[in-house]
Amino acid sequence: MIATDFDYYRPNTIKEALGLFHTLSENKKSPLYFNGGTEFITFRRIETLYTEVKAVIDIKNINMCHEIKEENDTFIIGASIPLATIETIPHFPLLSKVCNRIADHTSREKITLGGNICSNLKYKEAILPLLLTNCDVVIASPTGLHTVPIQQIYNIQTGKIMLEHGAFIVQFKIDKVFLNMPFTSKKVTANGRIGYPLVTISAIHMPHIVRFAFSGLCHAPFQLDMIDTTLNERNEPLKNRIQKTLEQLPSPILDDMNGSSEFRTFIFHGLVKEIISEFGKE
Ligand SMILES: Cc1cc2nc3c(=O)[nH]c(=O)nc-3n(C[C@H](O)[C@H](O)[C@H](O)COP(=O)(O)OP(=O)(O)OC[C@H]3O[C@@H](n4cnc5c(N)ncnc54)[C@H](O)[C@@H]3O)c2cc1C
Hints:
By secondary structure, this protein is an alpha+beta fold. The chain contains eleven helices and 13 strands. The strands form four sheets. The chain has a five-stranded antiparallel beta sheet with strand order 4-5-10-6-7. A three-stranded parallel beta sheet has the order 1-3-2, covered by helices on one side. The protein has a three-stranded antiparallel beta sheet with strand order 11-12-13, sandwiched between helices.
């Protein structure tokens, strides 16, 4: 049960959603965009987050937010698509695979792609395929609809998607050239198949290089060209490449109740070796 009241709005258009956000802000309601609602409800219930929010704006009725389509060379997926749906669609197999390992199936019916990416939790695993494919993000903001590369709005230090006040993510656009490249994704948790990642690594084999993206290892998910270069240096022994990568991480290795930094480092070594061997890049 949520102990304190809040207003719920479900607009049908982007214009209506942006207008509501503006009016509710003016009225000191601290509005929040609401997608699957799993994070909002979980944290509001225990009053650790979102306690100031007096109104939520559910964006799931907005057509563009639940589109799944191909347009010329681009695959487009709406920010309100639940992870359980993504698992079942054929367009972007790496994204399907990653989403299949996030939470349990019942939760995945609710959790949305946009919600996972904008979540306050540090894992945001669904961002890995989006970083690997340099996707574009369509943002609705008070100044109009804008399309920007994900790297431009994602901060790998804080793990935050940086949006203008009142803006929200409508869609993700992925260049189809990436969709059929060989890929892999490996996740290790402390306990069983379902759980937060100790380490998740997703990778795609591009024509000349294997690209890697990581979650669970550091404070926020990341992909770094410098790390890809290091791990692809085939004239260096693999052990040295992995060791050098550890010096290039964007922040210290996580050390928390789920796993020590030593254990995460051990898993990281094992997973990178497996992936490199799978792609024949030893
Ligand atoms: C049981 C369970 C297990 C989980 N396990 C994992 C896991 O293993 N790995 C992992 O990565 N995550 C995991 N999560 C975290 C989960 O993925 C996020 O909490 C969840 O994705 C939030 O999605 P939602 O659609 O419900 O978001 P909501 O609760 O609707 O929103 C969450 C936040 O994102 C913002 N937001 C949502 N959509 C948009 C948008 N389109 N534009 C701008 N802001 C937006 C909201 O304003 C809010 O601040 C788990 C969650 C649960 C409940």
